[in-house]
Specification:
By secondary structure, this protein is an alpha+beta fold. The protein contains 2 helices and 2 strands. The chain has 2 domains: about 30 residues, no CATH class; about 50 residues, no CATH class.
Length: about 90
């Protein structure tokens, strides 16, 4: 998943017998697809909206305006979403 687009490949991995004692890896591409208008930034926006909805649903937020109306809070949420993705990407 890139910043602006997503590319997916479905592959089949197998080992081919080259000789009695040696095998060689073989990758067969079964299919490929690309979506030019779905990228990492779109995922960030979805995650920000999910976190904002959870935050707005807290009992102590009852009667207060949506956190997304505050530009500073929205930027902070976006920064934290990127941080979360980086942490998850670094962990197995």
């Amino acid at each position: 998943m890139g910043g602006m687009d997503t590319e997916v490949s479905v592959v089949q991995y197998s080992l081919l017998n080259v000789s009695e004692k040696k095998t060689s890896p073989h990758i067969h591409i079964l299919g490929e697809a690309s979506v030019k208008d779905l990228g990492s930034r779109d995922l960030d926006i979805v995650m920000v909206n999910l976190l904002a909805a959870k935050f707005n649903a807290l009992p102590e937020r009852a009667g207060k305006e949506d956190v997304l109306t505050n530009v500073r809070a929205t930027k902070r949420l976006l920064k934290e979403v990127v941080k979360i993705k980086e942490i998850l990407s670094a962990n197995l």
